[in-house]
Amino acid sequence: MAAPQVTTIGEDPSTRARDHERAIADVQRAYAALPPDRPVRLAKRTSNLFRVRSDTGAPGLDLSALSGVVDVRPGVDGGPATARVGGVTTYEQLVDELLPHGYVPLVVPQLRTITIGGAVTGLGIEAASFRNGLPHESVLEMRVLTGAGKVVTATPDGEHADLFRTFPNSYGSLGYALDLVIELEPARPYVALRHERFGSVGELVDAVDAVMASHTWDGDRVDFVDGVVFGPTEAYLTFGRWTDHVEGQARPSDYTGEHVFYRSIQQRRTDVLTAHDYLWRWDTDWFWCSRAFGAQNPTIRRLWPRHLLRSDVYWKIVAFENRHGVMARVDRLRGQPERERVVQDVEIPLDRTAEFVDWFLREVPIDPVWLCPIQLRQRGTGTPWPLYPMARDERYVNVGFWSSVAIEPDAAEGDVNRHIEAEVTRLGGHKSLYSDAYYDEATFGRLYGGNAYAPVKKKYDPRGRLPTLYEKAVQSR
How far apart are CA 56 and CA 352, in angstroms? Predict the structure, then answer.
């Protein structure tokens, strides 16, 4: 299926562009009207962060009008197609608007309600990251509302190249992405899957190394690869390939109802999903975290409406528990120990990944564990993204684990997370900042580009209207 030559999606292009520019002007005026002596935060109805923020009473800035695909432009002279999209467009909306026209973003993070702006100012990964890197690497330009209240256009080589380089992983501490121009790639109607089992994490890592080098496995092209570790001797890689046909089965599989995707990895060797269902295969059950809410119990699942089998529903349940502590009180009444949340994604150099995962399985009672290979797309010299300084030409594996552990009698809240942070640092890795972090300020600055961040923060937010990255990531302001 050839990629179509489209320039607009939906309404008349001039109308959509005009409305978009009006919305940007409205946001800039709204920011200017906020009290200048108080910090600012986004007014958001949903979130994919797992930091319990303190209530500062800060006024909220509403960016909800900056949503949707403004235009799509075909590639020129063999170059990629591109789209201009609003900064708070969710990936669910991006997929819904782009996929019918044969396009997808280069990397589609796993959860539907992650926004394009959030994936760029934070981090996002998925099974295409071994060839397409991180979402911010597909950005060609972005318009940013800075902490100073100015709207600037940041590009790799322009006047605001310093902001372009430091915006990824700044978590809204430098400004907010109003719109972005991103590269796209052609999609196909289906994704054919192949699940391979390995008897150890070391064997799996060797296979990842081979696939990252060749983009093939056993003679088949590999467009997507990620993995699940169920235990020290049970680990799987799933290789995905775009295809125009349902191969080897009567119809594509459906994991949005009775069946659960991650269990299918253990149960079958090959599979086919529609492109849409593949992109959201992890969202339906929040990977495997829906089991904590009983959503994988067959009786409960039959009663649970399909349209509510999605990550943002589970996140709202977690947010309710964070506010009210209902289950925590029940556990205390039952004499159960307090629990520490261990919800993290960490990037480990490929050649240290087996060491980290084996350590984790010994030391932290959480399984399964998700693995997602990553290699930066950008080439050249220097550190391309100083606030998350992964090395060029280095292969990494993202390791994701999302659960909680009992706090032992002689331990304190945060001890397990601190232990993980120390091990990740020892192995030359980094962890994402969407969840709890415990670094002291000096260590944090060393790990997350403090020397590059400080002058850009001063330049684009001279009055400190936005919290610093450390305040946001560690102090949860």
Answer: 40
Q: Which residues pair with 345 in a beta bridge?
A: 400
How far apart (Å, rounded) are the C-alpha atoms in residues 436 and 76? 44
Placement of tokens 């029940």 in the chain: 330
* Residue type at position 400: G
- Domain spans in the chain, listed from the N-terminal domain onward: 13-186, 325-438
Please state which of the four CATH numbers 3.20.190.10, 3.50.50.100, 3.30.465.10, 3.40.109.10 is assigned to the domain occupying 13-186: 3.30.465.10
3-class secondary-structure state, position 360: helix
Q: Is 460 helix (H, G, I), strand (E, B) or coil?
A: helix
Structure tokens at 44: 């958001």
How far is CA 235 from its chain centroid? 22
Instruction: Go through 412-444 and write b for each residue having 16 or more CB atoms within 10 A of its CB, e for each that does not.
Output: eeeebbebbbebbbebebbbbbbbbbebeeeeb
- Closest CA relative to residue 191, chosen from 95, 271, 97: 271
pTM greater than 0.90: yes
How far apart, in whole angstroms, are the C-alpha atoms of residue 136 and residue 153? 15
pLDDT of 344-402, one tens digit each?
999 999 999 999 999 999 999 999 999 999 999 865 555 689 999 998 889 999 999 99
Pairing of strands 175-186, 139-146: antiparallel
* Residue ranges of E strands in 189-335: 190-198, 216-217, 220-221, 224-231, 234-243, 270-274
- Output b/e per residue, 79-98; b: 16+ Cβ within 10 A: ebbbbbbbbbbbbbbbbebb
Q: State how far the Cα of 377 lies from the Cα of 379, in Å rounded to an integer.
A: 7
Tens digits of per-residue pLDDT, 38-83?
A: 888 887 766 666 656 555 566 689 999 999 999 999 888 778 999 9
Low-confidence ranges of the chain (pLDDT < 70): 1-13, 45-59, 326, 330, 378-383
Residue 396: strand pairing partners: 349, 374
Structure-block tokens of residue 419: 């232990």
- Please state, in angstroms and rounded to a whole number, the distance separating the CA atoms of residues 288 and 127: 17
- In total, the chain counts a number of residues equal to 477
- Per the structure block, which two tokens stand in for 355? 């060491």
What fold does the segment set 325-438 form as a domain? Alpha-Beta Plaits (3.30.70)
